[in-house]
UniProtKB/TrEMBL annotation:
<feature type="compositionally biased region" description="Low complexity">
    <location>
        <begin position="7"/>
        <end position="21"/>
    </location>
</feature>
<feature type="domain" description="CUE">
    <location>
        <begin position="24"/>
        <end position="68"/>
    </location>
</feature>
<dbReference type="GO" id="GO:0043130">
    <property type="term" value="F:ubiquitin binding"/>
</dbReference>
<dbReference type="InterPro" id="IPR003892">
    <property type="entry name" value="CUE"/>
</dbReference>
<protein>
    <submittedName>
        <fullName>2437_t:CDS:1</fullName>
    </submittedName>
</protein>
<feature type="region of interest" description="Disordered">
    <location>
        <begin position="1"/>
        <end position="21"/>
    </location>
</feature>
Length: 230
């Protein structure tokens, strides 16, 4: 009984401590956002984690003095730096600086960082250029231009497209559909055309059509609905 009581006491104390720490960090973040309203909040959270005390004063000093007033910002018209719209804005900006860099490579890089997107990826690409003798970063055949289907897709769009194509092609293996989606950046129309082509030329699937899978409940997505109606 004493052991259980002691354990509960330690657990409760740890939870209270974590809760208090989170409240303090939230208060610090709120003060920083008041000073830098268009700042990437994930960047500010990263900065908060780098200091033990006097967070607002020290982070402000870092931005104004060390960074000469520069800091990662949320793109105009975006709610957060990690939203899909913001990442596409970053993608277009990076494309202007590195027009030959493979678009898929840039998409993957953007989706694998959660703050300071421009700063981190530009630094990575510059470092890769320095090691050009080892290949540098991957390049594309048609530089400068990014087609609409090459932009970053939101998780909700990707899920909606996947489920719709599962239902549109019930005789096609899901693994095949996933592979086509991956090749076409989850773009509905490009994936649809490729799957139609495969379905027409694939007698193997029709042989097993008797084992057709059940339909999925499709996910509503405004972006996909608008694309289908075009």
């Amino acid at each position: 009984m004493f052991k259980n009581s002691l354990f509960s006491s330690f657990k409760s104390g740890g939870e209270n401590s974590n809760s208090s720490s989170n409240v303090q960090k939230d208060a610090i973040l709120e003060q920083l956002v008041a000073l830098f309203p268009n700042a990437d909040q994930e960047y500010l959270k990263y900065c908060i984690g780098c200091y033990q005390d006097n967070h607002v004063e020290r982070i402000s000093e870092k931005i104004f003095n060390q960074n000469k007033g520069h800091y990662p910002k949320i793109p105009d018209g975006c709610k957060a730096a990690n939203c899909t719209k913001a990442k596409n804005a970053f993608l277009l900006q990076i494309n202007e600086l590195f027009p030959e860099c493979d678009v898929g490579f840039l998409r993957d890089k953007l989706c694998n960082v959660n703050h300071s997107h421009l700063q981190q990826i530009i630094e990575q690409l510059l470092n890769m250029e320095k090691t050009a003798d080892k290949g540098g970063y991957p390049r594309r055949m048609n530089p400068f231009t990014i087609e609409p289907w090459e932009l970053i897709r939101s998780p909700s769009y990707r899920k909606a497209v996947r489920y719709k194509l599962y239902n549109d092609f019930p005789d096609t293996w899901r693994s095949t559909i996933k592979a086509v989606l991956a090749e076409n950046n989850f773009d509905y129309k490009k994936s649809l055309e490729k799957l139609k082509e495969l379905a027409t030329n694939n007698w193997w699937n029709s042989l097993f059509s008797v084992f057709r899978r059940k339909l999925y409940k499709e996910v509503e997505n405004i972006e996909l609905m608008e694309e289908i109606q075009k």
